[in-house]
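### Sample
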Amino acid sequence: MEKHYAVIGDPIAHSLSPEMHNAGYKALGIDAEYQRFHVVPSNLAETVEGLCALGFSGWNVTLPYKEKIISLLDNLTPEARRAGAVNTVKIHDGQRIGHNTDGAGFIRSVEGELNGFKGKKAVLLGAGGASKGIALALTEQGMIVHILNRSPEKAQALVQVIRAEGGTATSGDFAQGDWLEQVDLLVQTTSVGLLGEPFPFSLQGISEQALVVDIIFNPSQTAFLQDAKKQGCRTLNGLGMLLYQGVLAWEFWLGGQAPVEAMQLALKDQLLRRMFYKG
Ligand SMILES: NC(=O)c1ccc[n+]([C@@H]2O[C@H](COP(=O)([O-])OP(=O)(O)OC[C@H]3O[C@@H](n4cnc5c(N)ncnc54)[C@H](OP(=O)(O)O)[C@@H]3O)[C@@H](O)[C@H]2O)c1
């Protein structure tokens, strides 16, 4: 019997998840379809009821509903409870289970580039929803996390959440500083660069050993990543995080191993097509 999955959000046209998941079903010959649904805030509760009534097996949740959907679910996995946000819902024995694969997806995307996490220093730029999931996942792996945000009170609040979960974290000014010389992993999680704008400060003086990640994937090379390259650092954009949050959602829904290569190819193909049609 055909299984049905979806992604819900507002806006949603930019989401690459349908192409990524449908390519995966095709690669493994799985009888399933993944759709995207634009859901306005006043329709969120009815949408969840509708997806259940129509027999959907699960769905992804993107902005702005990752927190709002929680009150409409029956259970949360430990990952979703810790993050306080849900990006994946599974219907299991009629129960709506909320899960979060964003943090673990980030870990999967960088682990091949880092020689272990424990005791190493990560600096996170930004303290929004994405930063929270990544910071919790990194401290769970034993990293020491320093958070710099334009609004310092948000960075301080995130530090308190991490400490309450047993992690080690501090906060500081959203500016150049001594931290640049000691950082093992630098993660840019703000929305600066999405529209091609410059980053507010330079990375001059950064340790050449640092791995630098910008979780933005379109554009693929933000001014921030270009600066990191210029300083001699290894760099990654956010495509790996997007891929692996999808891979982990797939495995949560269907079990077994997701076809990572087919899903990655579909993502790259969609990005190229969208760039082509834009220009
Ligand atoms: N690769 C992936 O799979 C993936 C997944 C999720 C998100 N993302 C990307 O991550 C970015 C953030 O998403 P989010 O959900 O965390 O958003 P969010 O919750 O709205 O947080 C936005 C963050 O950006 C900061 N910021 C915004 N404009 C700024 C500016 N001009 N100067 C300095 N800081 C600024 C905010 O600082 P204040 O607190 O001071 O406002 C806040 O820390 C977006 O670009 C999104 O596309 C990628």
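The two ends are 41 Å apart (CA to CA). This sample (Shikimate dehydrogenase (NADP(+))) is used throughout the tutorial notebook.
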